Amino acid sequence: MFVKRIRNSTILLAFISVVVAAPFTGYAESLNQAVESGKHLFMTANFNGNGRTCNSCHMAGGTTAGKLPDGSPIPSLNNAAAVFPRYNRRQDKVITLLDQVHNCVAGALQGTPPAYDSAEMVDLISYLSSLSQGKPLNMGGKPE
Ligand code: HEC
């Protein structure tokens, strides 16, 4: 009886230490992987919202001019990562690219924004940054 209890708790301890030693984080292990995963999220994820994805408005993965549901045009995301941080008039404060992604998930998708330090946010930022690769940093600049 006593021996059995010791054996059970040993097994339990071993199990716990394996789980603690190898937590699943979901973080990409290469930049390419992060960009690809971010692109996949951009095209398919609705973040438990109204069913829209990023690509519903920022078409062709954000590489061409986009369109709002009412048909009005919005700029591409080709230099988006190069124009932040930027003053946002509506919020009356300077926001980062992460804030903008947060705003679009919460507002446009009516979804639950990924935490700032989550794998999803890292991947989305990696994808958006890949679109601006080679563009000069132009903080506060206009979207193209
Ligand atoms: C319903 C349409 C819509 C959807 C869906 C949408 N956005 Fe946006 N997005 C906008 C609008 C409108 C703007 C520009 C105005 C603003 O909010 O500042 C914008 C701006 C942006 C910008 C800044 C562009 C720039 O150069 O200034 C980024 C980056 C962005 N969105 C990313 C995303 C991501 C990532 C998603 C998906 C999680 C997404 N958006 C989903 C409408 C949308």
Looking at CATH, the homologous superfamily is: Cytochrome c-like domain
Question: Would you identify the CATH architecture?
Answer: Orthogonal Bundle
- Structural class based on helices, strands and sheet pairing: mainly alpha
Q: What is the CATH class designation?
A: Mainly Alpha
Termini separation (Å)? 73 Å
What's the CATH topology label? Answer: Cytochrome Bc1 Complex, Chain D, domain 2
Give every kind of bound small molecule, once each.
heme C
Number of helices: 5
Strands of the biggest beta sheet: in what spatial order? 1-2
Report the C-alpha radius of gyration, rounded: 21 Å
* Percent in helix: 40-55%
Overall mean pLDDT score? Answer: 90
Domain unit count = 1
The main pleated sheet reads as: 2 strands, antiparallel
In the predicted model, the low-confidence regions spanning at least 5 consecutive residues are none
Explain what this protein looks like in three dimensions:
The strands form two sheets. This protein has a two-stranded antiparallel ribbon with strand order 1-2. The protein has five helices and four strands. With 144 residues, it is mainly alpha-helical. α2 crosses α5. The protein has helices at residues 2-21, 31-44, 54-57, 97-108, 119-131, and strands at 66-67, 73-74, 86-88, 93-95. The mean pLDDT is 90. β1 and β2 (73-74) form a beta hairpin. It is globular, with a radius of gyration of 21 Å. The chain has one domain (31-131): Orthogonal Bundle (Cytochrome Bc1 Complex, Chain D, domain 2). The structure holds heme C. Residues 42, 52, 54, 56-58, 68-69, 74-75, 77, 80, 83, 97, 100-101, 104-105, 108-109, 124, 128, 143 line the site of heme C.
